[in-house]
Design brief:
Blueprint (H helix, E strand, L loop, with lengths): L4 H39 L5 H31 L11 H24 L6 H25 L4 E2 L2 E2 L6 H19 L20 H19 L6 E2 L2 E2 L1 H30 L4 H16 L7 H25 L8 H14 L1 H4 L8 H32 L7 H6 L1 H6 L19 E2 L8 E2 H5 L14 E8 L4 H10 L6 E7 L6 E5 L2 E5 L2 E10 L4 H12 L7 E8 L16
Antiparallel strand pairs: 1-2, 3-4, 5-6, 7-11, 7-12, 8-11, 9-10
Helix pairs in contact: 1-2, 1-3, 1-6, 2-3, 2-4, 3-4, 3-5, 4-12, 5-8, 5-10, 5-12, 6-7, 6-8, 7-8, 7-9, 8-9, 8-10, 9-10, 16-17
Amino acid sequence: MEPTLLQADTEMLIESINYTWILIATFLIFFMHAGFAMLEAGQVRSKNVANQLTKNLLTWSVGVTVFFLIGAGVESVVAGNGFAPGFQGDATGWMDWLYGAVFAMTAATIVSGAVAGRAKLRAYVTYTFLLAAVIYPVVTGLTWAGEHIAYSDVLFQDFAGGMIVHGMGGIAGLTAAWVLGPRMDRYNSDGTANVIPGHSLTFAVLGTLILAFGWYGFNVGTSAIIGEGAFLGDQLGRVAMTTTVSMACGAMGAGLIAWLKTGKVDTLYVANGLLAGLVGITAIPETTAWWGAFVVGGLAGAQLPIVFEFVEQYLKIDDVCAVFPVHGSAGVLGTLLFPFVAAPGVVDNIANAFITQLIGVAVITVWTVVATAVIWYAFKAAGQARVSPEHERDGLDVSEHGVDTYPEFGQPDVATDGGDEVIRADGGERFDESRSSSELRSDGGEPNDGQIKMVMAIVRPDRLGAIKQSLAEAGAPSLTVTNVSGRGSQPAKKGQWRGEEYTVDLHQKVKIECVVADIPAQEVVDAIREGAETGEPGDGKIFVMPVEGATQIRTGKTGPDAV
């Protein structure tokens, strides 16, 4: 019987709503790249931030095009359907392709966090090309597309990529980090580990929350909203609930173990644990009982500090952003827990279901490790895997990109060129240097006995604004500011990074240099002291030194006239 017009319109409406939902979920998953960028940027040193951001941008840009041209076709071949790349599809098929592509790019970008701070950009981009073209498509061809992994008629269960996407990405990252070797100064000669803190917990937590938001596209988005003309409320509700509960329990589980290990609730472990809870439930959110979400999330979070310590202390692998305990082991754990936490009636035979899950995890792990190791060992043999020690020491931002993520420190209120007039930083009247130099002094002498003086101060960074204001009020707005670190009377501090304690005995300071001729050096000293003093150890010191000569580049003036 031919469908009536009303039936046809209803089917079109259902299809339109479904594809609109798919696109919304796709956009949510794409937005997770912003979360990965912030999370990884926060966990690396400031000299490597631009490199990490660039890798995230190129992961998407290179990977998504390669998956369109090659990867989708390889997936189709492995599934048994012949080579059918993305460009052979139609408009509707391209929406399905894009939905698969954002999952593929999530797996790819996970690797960048593991190899941060020492991998050559060209090596990472080439690996991303191969992952999007072959490594990931083989995994999805064996699982989602082809359904080749089964035992006793029980298919491998992975609803939204807990193992296929996150577990695979975490294992690939660990393998790449193992082949590359640790960052310089990460381990001592006796094998003990040094803590290398990232530069911004703020970025890391912001990235975590962006990822958590996008994860609803990952899990809830994978559920169709309409099927057979009915709203699938039961599945959607279960997926939303288990995703949320597991996320929350992951954060609490990691925080609890960190507290038991160190006596403190480590912020980064809580953030990473939240993500581990999400990874753990991603393979099974539509089948897990409500109490199972607590179990999966809690265990995924709890294993995080333990697995990270094992990787760092025993395997000696420098996994910078903890991608294996967050994505790898948490993905494996959640996938294997499927038959034990399933809602009543979901699993007929727990043993067969577990064996199937175990086979799937083993196949994905072996393929990922072998393929990734071969590629990175080839890079290493060709001398293209890792940057030079000099470039690593200087930072990848400069050596790989020629940029500095933080090019300015303490932007001055005024910029002077040494000319006749400068503008006071406090917004007051113009200050005429020539008039100042001829002003009568009460002692009848010249400032600094006619000599040039260098006033140098080492002070707290947070006092820089007040010092600049004081110097401007004293008529000495020209200064040079440099980031430095040092040790003096200020006591050492203890810090924690991912649950490990380290000692900070070189404190961050700024060095201020002010050369004066027509202004008494003592007035400059007094101005700096007024702005810098807090009354606590570590306020710094001020030094006054003679300057033998000076030349103004623009005018050629020398001596005090140059200053």
